[in-house]
């Protein structure tokens, strides 16, 4: 029994938790940089709540709202320059995984000079701007992880800054910001969270703690799936209640706590290419591949696969694959040349070393083929 | 859904984890104060491992080995004076709950002046000496909590310093230091950990996270119980393997993570008097009362009581009471006047406010009577 547990972020959850707990922002700094995407933080009320809380604590702020989906290295360097120019001393991220992951890179780069070739090296000084996070989707778990996933055009994939420095100091979770999320985003992000918890259980770093959280998270997400499918079928999100939004947010929090301990596995490794080359949403990419990877795991570790399938309240891996097909509808067209290329990229990622059942390049190719060509 | 999760201590677990991870001590300071009891840290190898790690990192140290069982307020003021005199800048606690809880008080009092009447007020400056912890019993969970439980002779009970400041920076968990623990201590501490996890599930602050950890912890302890009973019967600890020591240590870690979120309940509130006035070991006191409290809970929340009993792999509360009787043998003699007094003290503790099912003074009296006079 050898392992480490570490997740130092303070998590505050509940309705209006930002405004009610504004004093927690007090210790962060005197001038904050709000890091967001272009629209949703303004539309869903989260940015307004943060501003209200900052004003009540007498904290000044600037806004950097230029984070795109799957943020680039260029974006975080730009944000860091802006942070330095405006002399902010803390960062507040509001949004889905993209603004949150970008904010971590910005917080690091605003505090110390790191050249682009060293950005993913892990070789940093122990300084960073303190951060508060407000997730406005329920999937990434970035609010409780030490990862900043950025698009690296040179490497033609996503890569991770992974350092304990970039755990946020505090994260505020309030499902009300998710009420206007569309069905597709809600499903994609929920399945991203599901993938985190399942992959955590399939990691060499899985522990009693991460497994206990993962099983709860899987159960919570699966309890919401019938309503998600109904919303998809009726094209109407009103069947997704606020209570369900909170549950999905809670489940994604647990999924984040899981991968903070375990990292992700082959599913994420493979999914990155789908996102980079085919612009397939991250959660959707994971969901499309999850069942095939679990099928591979089942061959070597049938008991473990069964524990996961049971936590999902299913009986066999095929049912998970069917369910994902129902969630995601028609699949993208991908040819065998593309698959060969993606398999070759996936096998080189760090995520593969995390796998309890390590696929080889042929296995990875086979999983892509089963997903897209059968 | 309203709650907070916070447990910022880095936990390192595994054989020889102190020496293998000595670099984690590097950031704590330049001169450490080792806080221990009189004997066990020297006898079980933990102090030698810490010294080896400190020396390999070039960190100087002093030793304060005057912590008694159920440490007093006087003891922590004395330790803090010694820390200031020796100009240490960090604290390393080695031992069971007593040295660990004392070390937290010392770390706080060495960094700031707090008068005795303010010691339990929660009103502190945000400074403390950084701490590393090495538990050498598997029960308290103090290595991952924000509590320092001290004996307050003026109030004739134990009282808690409770502040996020006193979470240790890092805790090292290695079951090998427990190999020479006697049967009685092993059982008492295991049941203390069991009580933490059960009480966590009975707290108003219970959450999905704390419940998930509590259930795992309860299962792990119950898996060790047959061996503990065998060791008790044969008066031979050799049936308690190193793997089992690790499991108990792991379970007590989870129990600590649970109460860091939930606090403890009526069981601890009642147990404090048994320890203060009758010198009954803390874990034993909790164990003797746990079944009676669960019986009270069962009347109002039968489903919750069943979840806990099932996690123990038992069928009814009576079986838990029987099991505790087997673990603890003949009970201490306590008369009705004493019970009245203890009930009156217990009802005034903060722990009662944590109870999902709040006992009144008559209920508490009845639980004592059922435990000691029937």
- What is the average per-residue confidence, as pLDDT of chain A, rounded to a whole number? 97
Ranges of chain A where pLDDT stays below 50 over 5 or more residues in a row are none
Number of helices of chain A: 15
Structural class of chain A: alpha/beta
CATH architecture annotation name of the largest domain in chain A:
Up-down Bundle
Shape category of chain A: globular
Separation, N- and C-terminal Cα atoms of chain A: 41 Å
The largest contact between protein chains, plus residue counts on each side, is: A-B, 28 and 28 residues
**Strand arrangement, major sheet of chain A:** 2-9-6-5-3-4
Biggest sheet of chain A, open or closed, and with what strands and sense?
6 strands, parallel
**Radius of gyration from the alpha-carbon trace of chain A, in angstroms:** 20 Å
GO molecular function, one term (chains A, B): alcohol dehydrogenase (NAD+) activity
InterPro entries (chains A, B): ADH_Fe/GldA, ADH_Fe_C, Alcohol_dehydrogenase_Fe
Family (chains A, B): Belongs to the iron-containing alcohol dehydrogenase family.
Domain Fe-containing alcohol dehydrogenase-like C-terminal (chains A, B): 186-369
């Amino acid at each position: 029994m050898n392992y480490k547990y570490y997740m130092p972020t303070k998590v505050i959850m509940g309705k209006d938790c930002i405004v009610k707990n504004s004093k927690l922002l007090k210790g962060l700094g005197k001038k904050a940089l709000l890091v967001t995407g272009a629209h949703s933080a303004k539309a869903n009320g989260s940015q307004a709540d943060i501003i209200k809380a900052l004003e009540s604590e007498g904290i000044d702020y600037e806004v950097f709202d230029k984070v795109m989906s799957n943020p680039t290295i260029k974006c975080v360097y730009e944000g860091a320059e802006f942070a330095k120019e405006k002399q902010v001393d803390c960062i507040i991220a509001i949004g889905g995984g993209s603004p949150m992951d970008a904010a971590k890179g910005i917080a690091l780069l605003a505090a110390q000079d790191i050249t682009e070739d060293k950005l993913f090296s892990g070789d940093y000084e122990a300084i960073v701007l303190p951060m508060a996070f407000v997730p406005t989707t329920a999937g990434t778990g970035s609010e409780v992880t030490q990862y900043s996933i950025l698009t690296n055009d040179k490497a033609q994939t996503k890569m991770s800054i992974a350092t304990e420095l970039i755990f946020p100091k505090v994260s505020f979770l309030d499902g009300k910001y998710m009420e206007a999320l569309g069905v597709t985003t809600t499903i994609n992000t929920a399945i991203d969270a599901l993938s985190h918890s399942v992959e955590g259980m399939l990691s060499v770093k899985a522990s009693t703690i991460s497994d206990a959280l993962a099983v709860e998270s899987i159960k919570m997400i699966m309890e919401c799936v019938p309503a998600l499918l109904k919303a998809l079928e009726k094209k109407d999100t009103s069947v997704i209640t606020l209570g369900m939004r909170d549950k999905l947010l809670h489940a994604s929090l647990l999924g984040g706590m899981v991968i903070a301990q375990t990292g992700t596995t082959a599913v994420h490794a493979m999914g990155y290419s789908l996102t980079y080359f085919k612009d397939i949403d991250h959660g959707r990419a994971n969901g499309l591949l999850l069942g095939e990877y679990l099928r591979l795991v089942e061959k070597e570790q049938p008991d473990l696969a069964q524990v996961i399938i049971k936590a999902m309240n299913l009986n066999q891996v095929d049912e998970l694959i069917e369910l994902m097909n129902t969630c995601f509808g028609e699949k993208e067209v991908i040819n065998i040349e593309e698959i060969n290329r993606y398999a070759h990229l996936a096998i080189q990622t760090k995520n593969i070393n995390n796998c309890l059942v390590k696929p080889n390049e042929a296995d990875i190719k086979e999983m892509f083929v089963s997903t897209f060509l059968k």
